[in-house]
Amino acid sequence: MNHPLLSIIVPCYNVEKYLDKCISSIVNQTYRNLDILLINDGSTDSTGMICDSWQKKDTRIRVIHKQNEGQAYGRKTGVENTTAEYITFVDADDWIDAHMYSEMMAALLSSGSDIAQCGVCMVYEEDGRIVHLDNEVKTGIFELVERIKGALLILENDRWHSWMWNKIFKRHLFEGIVFLKGNGYAEDFISLYLFHKANHTVFTSDEYYYYLQRNRSTTGSKNISNQLKNQCDFLDAWQDRYLFVLQHPEYNVALLTVKLWVLRLGIHLLRNIIVYSQYFTVDVDKMFYTKAKQLRAIPLTRRDGLQRGIRFEFYILKFTGAKCYRFLRSTYVMIINITNRLKITNRKTGNLLSEMWYCLLKDLRPLV
Length: 368
Hints:
The protein is an alpha/beta fold. The protein contains 12 helices and 10 strands.
């Protein structure tokens, strides 16, 4: 097909175990007017060879081999190398229902929307368990949402929130969009700006996308460094959202939600800089004081709903300064470590590996 209407972009990095299933689910779509871009992002396993073998099997597949620059730049490369009117994404360890694009493209074209989105179910690799994110059955029902409401769903962290891969976008929405190089987490947050530019969105809770929850090791210094970087990326993304809402008063109703996310994530990161400073690959002192300055600039009232422990720390930071906060927090960590060694207490000074993502998903309750 000379000019496909839909382009599917699949960034691939060291996913040899999962890639065949992913690509199979795409090439077997009932919707045929598409092309598939496999972006091999500098993989060090057999991912690149798997991509090349699929290119030989299906003429709709194109493979681009590039140096490793992260998921966001993998998507950027795909967007820059397609001329299709509509663009979508699939993560290389996930898979999709055979009718996903036929249903979503039909809804897009019939409604004249700029974005279509569908439901997602999470599949746990360890035991094959499937978790449905929407308990309501709305088979075949598509709902039309106008621009401001669609963006607010993201800002309020609705379950559809920022994911890019359960959506189809009109190509023109990507004009002027900045993909952040190196981002391997929070790379989906650009969806806010796409929704802001869209006129209407059509969506359904039908679960066409299968989001694999992979087994991951939680030990080793490399993993700690990666998780800390992810946490920094996540905070930066929410800080950008906070500034975006300040600049666009039509979204002011979401200001409190966005502000609380920034404050919780910010205090969480400052704690981890103190406890895990040796695992950062950047200037930790500069990062600490930069993030502290950003947090101190955020106004807070007693009615804002911040948890008591984090509120207390925030007030110490805001009214005594970053240096004093760092000294007090470091002293607290030292005292707890000493009492733990003496078996007087068994408190945790930081629990990044086991609780980091749990905290993010569970309203970021305090770590200690």
